[in-house]
Design brief:
The chain is mainly alpha-helical and 95 residues long. The protein has 3 helices and no strands.
Length: 95
């Protein structure tokens, strides 16, 4: 279905979009932390053991991907909650 065909509560839709952007920034930060752990280990600039650096980096990257899937699912749910009822649309069109 095309989301543009529906009417949304503006405040709820804006809140859903804003929260999705903030959550996406957190996911990007988690991915960057994981990448930087691995990058520093490969360069030899890390004081951590290589096994711990790789494991920690991969855990952060996996957490970022999992959080990204959660963000998309939650955003879709919040948009569905912001959708105005069909009866309200029909009543507005008949007037």
């Amino acid at each position: 279905m095309d989301d543009r065909a529906f009417e949304y509560d503006a405040a709820k839709r804006t809140r859903a979009n804003n929260l999705a952007v903030l959550r996406a920034l957190v996911a990007a930060y988690l991915a960057w932390l994981g990448f930087s752990l691995i990058r520093d280990c490969v360069r030899g600039a890390s004081t951590l053991s290589p096994a711990f650096a790789w494991t920690g980096g991969l855990v952060f990257i996996a957490a970022a991907f999992a959080f990204a899937f959660y963000i998309r699912r939650q955003w879709k749910r919040e948009l569905a909650a912001a959708r105005l009822p069909k009866q309200a649309e029909d009543a507005a069109q008949s007037e």
